[in-house]
Amino acid sequence: MNRTLKNVLIVIGAGLLLAVLAIPKIGSLQGTAKKNSNTANASRDQRMAVRMQLIAAEMLGDKVMTVGTILSNEEVEIRSEISGKVEKIDFKEGARVKKGETLLKINDAELQAQLVRAQYRQALAEQDAERQRQLFEKKLASQEEYDIAVNQLNIVKADIQIIQAQIAKTEIRAPFNGTIGLRYVSEGSYISPTTRITTLQDYNSVKVDFTVPEKYASLIRQGDRISFTVEGSARKFAGTVYAVEAKIDPTTRTLHIRALSPNPDGVLIPGAFANVEVVLKEKETLTIPSFALIPELKGYRVFLYKNGKAESQSVEIGSRTDESVEVTRGVQAGDTLITSGILQLRSGMAVQPAESL
Question: Which domains does the chain have, with CATH numbers?
Fold first, then answer.
């Protein structure tokens, strides 16, 4: 009986030993099977993930980069037409003024006295002319005597108009709406036509003065759009060409152009330096991102997505901007352009959209 129990225990122990030895082999087989499965999946999907976009027609225009200067829409130095002592100053530096508003008054006492004397002479001339008219009607005076009296009256009236014009010049008025600059005279100063009194500028809208190379002269037209920036501001301003010089400067071989830009908030200050971008005539054409273009020895090429593969395509280009390039030949609207990983691609390589990962 004891011998039988002993045999049973030996059999059970041997079974347990075999089970323990079999477990690592089972795990190894499972790992191998899993590894083989992953390898099979990897071999089935060797496609490179790339970004793509459809090629479509867009509006594109040539652009010319140049520099220019901001000018006031209207600007004038205020000076007197006559000499005299400043009696009164009616403006404040930096203030807004309206057209016709009095800025400065010059002493006109002498002119006022001349006007009074001329008015007395006019009264006497009128009486003499009237008396000669009555005598002429009664045949007591000749036509010549009457004409002389009328002529003397007209001369006096003309003298009065001259004096009144001189008096009007003693009042300096604003020629247009604008902003007054700094003042260079004081009350009591003696001024002449050469004396600079102040400046007046209208910059509710500003002019942008710039030039473009001769080769663009035939492309610039009134109404063309421009954009520009100025120092100290990240804002981009817009304007419209309103005047083009009639000839090219033979010294610099450039064409002088002026554009007008609104400036209601007064951000643009006359005299400022401007970086100008001129947008020439726009056209509808096929464009692609400039980074998708691959330069070659004999031209350019791109990669297109066709039937799950990257296909190399030679192209010809036209105009270009900072971000886009015009393609004139080699692609059509609706083609799918590959825009990433282009340096790693080879023609015929299997690819897939990156969004599908």
Answer: 49-60+285-356 (2.40.420.20), 65-72+202-283 (2.40.30.170), 80-191 (no CATH)
